[in-house]
Amino acid sequence: MKLKEALLLGLKIPQDHIIIETENIKGDDQENRESPAQYRLTCPGTSECVSLRECPQILAEATMRCYNSDRSLFCGVNQKFEPFICCPTYQSPTYVAESTNNLNNYDKLSGSCGRSLVQGSSYKKLGAYPFVARIGFKNVNTGHLAYPCTGSIISKRIVLTAGHCALAKADGHRLSSVRIGEFDSTKDPDCADSGFCAPSAINHAVSHVVVHPDYTNGQYHHDIALLILRTPINYTVAAQPICLQRDRTNLVVGKRALIIGWGKVSLSTIRSPEMQYMDIPLASWDQCLRVYSASGALDSQKSIEGQWMCAGGEGRDVCQGFGGAPLFITENGITNQIGIMSFGSENCGGLRVPSVYTSVAHFYNWIQENIPIE
């Protein structure tokens, strides 16, 4: 990737170049003063050639075009090698709800979601699934961070996960932060085989937690929570919000879905440092009842019909480390989260042994009602 393309994207490249990232721009008036343009081209139509920092609404589009080697938005560079782009004078379009008459039609999370900036249906590496986050627990004695759970980005300050992850009380550990933008935990920054690199992963401190009031620690009903971050996420090629499934109309038995996270899968004897994914089928609820009814995991006075989903059972599954991970489907280029990993069997990956997921569609209204007003 060329330097100018990397500047446009705000990516880090493994060479001795200085890349200006929008999140690191200082607030001091003197240092924030625009440097003289080294060169600047004329933009078409009503667009203006301005510094990328002055046009944040087009960052995602610029990122996608840069990755595809399209420099049509690039119009210059200043003496500090900060990119200039053609910024439209109108507000760029977003995907919004058609009606605001009631909660079902009004989505507080409305906006562009469920899209990867990396193109290619067969590509499964860095940037293919930028919707996933790692949930960090800090050792109160040593300060060491462990990541036993996973969540999904649903807005710049909200990560969706399981209630049992949000309220986990491991000995000597406490919920601390959410790690955003990671793919391989052994590399920083993450770089793809094609040569592009994502910005370094960032740990965002958790401000507070919103757990469903009917969730009971140690049980699995109403197993859902929102983690509210102290600082907003900077969307990049490795960090994007996922869309949420509103209903179950197209979620039929046998439909294929993906689960993503960092953990052990049944087909491997070791836990990979890379983000893992597995394609599994949606299964009938009767199949989960046959497996788990004797264990008592589904028994509770507060259990309600439809709050869970059943998936897997083909003789392979995800195991430890996937708690709270998103189960999702991608159709017409849009990714919708349909479930949250709740629990599975000790016989992980056994034939006809599916896992149980919290239904996103069932709790969609609860999510909307509990999103903090910015």
From TrEMBL:
One Pfam family in the UniProt entry: Trypsin
Predominant cellular place of this UniProt entry's protein: secreted
Domain Peptidase S1: 117-372
Compartment(s) where it occurs, according to its Swiss-Prot or TrEMBL record: Secreted
One cellular-component annotation, GO: extracellular region
InterPro entries linked to this entry: CLIP_Serine_Protease (IPR051333), Peptidase_S1_PA (IPR009003), Peptidase_S1_PA_chymotrypsin (IPR043504), Peptidase_S1A (IPR001314), Trypsin_dom (IPR001254), TRYPSIN_HIS (IPR018114)
GO terms assigned for molecular function: serine-type endopeptidase activity
GO biological process: innate immune response; proteolysis
Keywords: Disulfide bond, Glycoprotein, Immunity, Innate immunity, Secreted, Signal
Homology family: Belongs to the peptidase S1 family. CLIP subfamily.
Family annotation (PANTHER family): FI17609P1-RELATED (PTHR24260:SF145), PTHR24260
Name this protein carries in UniProt: CLUMA_CG015738, isoform A
